[in-house]
Each structure stands twice: as C-alpha cells, then as structure tokens.
Design goal:
Keywords: ATP-binding, Glutamine amidotransferase, GMP biosynthesis, Ligase, Nucleotide-binding, Purine biosynthesis. This protein has about 325 residues and is an alpha/beta fold. Helices cover about 40% and strands about 20% of the residues. The structure holds xanthosine-5'-monophosphate.
C-alpha cells in the first residue's frame, strides 16, 4: 500500500530516468502543489530544474519575499520576477471579474514565456497538477487551464510546446502534504490555505489600483496573523478579506465620514466544492475588527460573511 517514502523513492528514480540531463522550467505559486512538485523534481535533477516565481502585485502582504526566502532555503534554483506594474497596467480600468481573470492569465503567460525563453535548451514544463485537477473536467484553476482557455486563437506560447512533466498527477491533496513532509518542506508552506491564482484581484470588487491592493493587504494580514496567533489558522480551510466597492458613513469627532467597508470570510471545507462559514469566536472577531479600523486608514466598517457554499461561493467574484 501507499506510503510517502516509497512514493518519493520511486518517483525520484523515475524522474531521473525520464529526464536525464534535460532542463525543466516550473512556475512556483507559493502554494502547496507547485512547491512539492518543485522539491521532488529538484531531488531528481538538481540545478537542471529552473523555477520561476512571479510577483503579480496581487499576493498577500510580504508574501513574495517570505516565500522566495523559503524556496532559497530549500535549495531550489528559483528566480523571483517582479512584474507588479505589468499586472496593474493590464488590469487598469477593468471591473468585470472574468475580464480581470483573463488579463491576469494573459499577463502571466507573457511573463512566463519570456522567462522560459531565457533558459537555454529547456525541454520540459514541470507542473504541480494533482489528481483532482486531472479529473475536474471544467477547471478554472492553475496556469495551464488559463493558458488553454486564452490561447485557442493565435497559437500557443512557446513554453506550451514543451513536453510536460507532472509528478503529482496521481495524488490527492492529503497525499501531496505527506510527500511534502517526507521531503522536509516546512509546515508553514505545507499548511497554507488555498489561495486563488488571480489573488487579491478577485477580492477587490470592481477595478484594481495599487492603493486598493495596499489597503486589502493590510486588512488581510491583520486577519490572517490574528488567526495564526490565536491558534485558529489550522482549523480553517481558507480565509481572507474582501474590499467592497462601497463607502459607508462613520463618525469622527463631530464629522461624518464616508470610508470603505471590508468583509472577512473564513470557511471550513474538505475540497472547496462545498463550504461552511466558520463560527469564529465573537471576541476574536471583535478584536480583529478593532485592529483593522484602528490601523488601516480608509476603512471604517468591518462585516463578517456568514454564508455557506452553495449557494454562496467562497470568493465574492
Ligand atoms: P469558489 O469561489 O468558486 O472557490 O467557491 C473555490 C476555490 O477555488 C478558488 N478560486 C480560484 N482559484 N483561479 C484559481 O486559481 C480562480 O480564478 C479562482 N476562483 C476561485 C477559491 O479561492 C477557492 O479555493
């Protein structure tokens, strides 16, 4: 029967045989799947694995620097690419959620294709695809799905013509985490909540500006750090904050103010297909709300989302 030790042993041996001295390029997202796939491939082919981690300007606060640092400590050959401005330019003026997703997908492809071209003689595209991604017939997730839906016209980018290697494509999520543990990947990476590819862009309702991203990053960091310090993070499947496109009235001294509203969302789930809102302690929610309102300029109201999926989705758009 299946053990992560034997999986690692046979997979590394198979990858060595299959890849030989070939070069592989892989896009890291900071998430569990791409991280485990990278470390596994690195075991097999070492420096011939070229990882690319793109800062799309839509990540959590300080996430790019922190995750890049963990990848370096894992010994990965990883290039961090700051493309924040390109993504903001591509998103400028777009409010429709699907147009935002498309702009992000296309910009990612352009950046990744450029970076892949810089690796001389690269022969393979590595991907962190897991079994549920394989069987999910209509998937909105992951770079490859995005690529497929946006490059039906005009031909594929060059990196899509590479041979594909997907060492995790027979595994479920819990098995991926076990494999990651066997490989010595730190819990701070393996235990991370899922985070959507388009990142904070689909948690800022309406159009995206760097100023809005900055506000949401601050709010989100207070919420997530609070969950961690209260020991609640591991009980939650996914959590985050949403910046609403409305201003609500508040009072400051004798003045009425109109400032922004944020919603907090935390859900429990097994696979993201259905989800329940988390019954977080009132004291905790009160504390987080105070901290957000006191520390984040421009926000005067915090609400908590108490809807379950279905019919509400986990994200707001
Ligand atoms: P929903 O909002 O559909 O989300 O209940 C289910 C899971 O999918 C994630 N999600 C996305 N992931 N690209 C992604 O990579 C997307 O466009 C996208 N939309 C939603 C969501 O965060 C949750 O984990």
């Amino acid at each position: 029967d299946w053990t992560s030790d034997s999986f690692v042993e046979t997979t590394v041996a198979n990858l060595k045989e299959k890849l030989g001295q070939d070069k592989v390029v892989l896009g890291l997202s900071g998430g569990v799947d791409s991280s485990v796939a990278a470390v596994l491939l690195h075991r097999a082919i070492g420096k011939n694995l070229y990882c690319i981690f793109v800062d799309n300007g839509l990540l959590r606060k300080d996430e790019f620097e922190q995750v890049l640092e963990s990848y370096h400590s894992l010994g990965l050959n990883v290039k961090g690419v700051d493309s924040k401005q390109r993504f903001y330019d591509a998103l400028a003026g777009l409010s429709d959620p699907e147009l935002k997703r498309k702009a992000i997908g296309k910009t990612f492809i352009d950046v990744f294709d450029h970076e892949a071209h810089a690796i001389e003689g690269v022969a393979w595209l590595g991907q962190g695809t897991i079994y549920p991604d394989v069987i999910e017939s209509v998937s909105v997730k992951g770079p490859s799905a995005t690529i497929k839906s946006h490059h039906n016209v005009g031909g594929l980018p060059d990196f899509m013509k590479l041979k594909v290697v997907e060492p995790l494509n027979t595994l479920f999520k819990d098995e991926v985490r076990k494999v990651g543990k066997t490989l010595g990947i730190p819990q701070e990476i393996l235990g991370r909540h899922p985070f959507p590819g388009p990142g904070l862009a689909i948690r800022i309702l309406g159009d995206i500006t760097p100023e809005k991203v900055d506000i949401l990053q601050k709010v989100d960091a207070i919420f997530i750090n609070g969950l961690k310090s209260e020991g609640l993070y591991d009980q939650v499947w996914q959590a985050g904050a949403i910046l609403l496109p409305i201003h609500s009235v508040g009072v400051m001294g004798d003045e009425r103010t109109y400032e922004q509203v944020v919603a907090l969302r935390a859900v429990s789930s097994l696979d993201g297909m259905t989800a329940d809102w988390c019954h977080l302690p009132y004291e905790f929610l009160g504390k987080i709300s105070n901290e957000i309102i006191n520390k984040v300029k421009g926000v005067n109201r915090v609400v908590y989302d108490i809807s379950s999926k279905p019919p509400a989705t986990i994200e707001w758009e």
